[in-house]
Amino acid sequence: MKVDNRVAVVTGGGAGIGAALAVKLAHAGARVVVADLDSGAAAAVAEAINRASSGAAVSAGADVSATVDIQQLIRLAENEFGPVDLYFANAGITGSTGLDVSETDWDRSLDVNLRAHIRAAQLLVPGWIERGQGYFVSTSSAAGLLTQLGSATYSVTKHAAVGFAEWLNITYGDKGIRVSCLCPMGVNTKLLYSGSKSGDPLGDLATRAVTAAGDVLEPTVVADTVLEAIDDERFLILPHPEVLDMYRQKAADYDRWLRGMRRYQRSLLGDPR
């Protein structure tokens, strides 16, 4: 799909990958709704786009775990620009670490990292089927293909996001609906370093595991990769190509891969075993 003159909604658009996506989309001629829980950050991104880009942008504060907020984003896009062509389910949270995680923390991670995608698709896909086209981009993580040391909530919900994107692609791909799933490793965002600043040993483990596994990319590099994938209508978006090799190794010998991950965890924790 060409993004020129398309209408896009980007959640988590106030910073990081979301902000970079919004800017790149607008630069390519799209009209963008920049949404973020931090309405001020979203407004700043939209204002920068309108000053510098050939596209156009509006902003909104939104909690994408709430269906009503997603409905309002879609309505804003329709009122300002027209029907939504592309939806970027990009907002995410790191969640809690360890096994002793409260039901509330699990629910929050599930709501933001998974159910927000499901709710957006429920609102958009019927209309896209009628129009014969639409594009859903799910931001997961390499953790959704591999795992995340330290955080079960992040690992499990990102796996589920990949699974939902796969299901959407299979179920509606023959009806004009395109689906891509973004699975980067380390990206230079506040989210990446939040674990090391939390004072939580498992949070620090999560950050160090990602930063030690490969290059930490800038959000603009990731956004460029996403737009290339959309142009190709490619499902799996891997800004870190080595993730595919890791995924193949996992599938080829699951037990060996699990032993390797335990060994990697021990090395990060300074365990001499």
From TrEMBL:
Q: Which SUPFAM superfamilies match?
A: NAD(P)-binding Rossmann-fold domains
Q: Which InterPro entries match?
A: NAD(P)-bd_dom_sf, SDR_fam
Q: Which UniProt keywords apply?
A: Oxidoreductase
Name the Pfam families for this protein.
adh_short (PF00106)
An example Gene Ontology molecular-function term: oxidoreductase activity
Gene3D superfamilies attached to this UniProt entry: NAD(P)-binding Rossmann-like Domain (3.40.50.720)
State the family named in the UniProt similarity comment for this chain: Belongs to the short-chain dehydrogenases/reductases (SDR) family.
Protein name, per record: Putative short chain dehydrogenase/reductase
Q: Which organism is it from?
A: Mycobacterium botniense
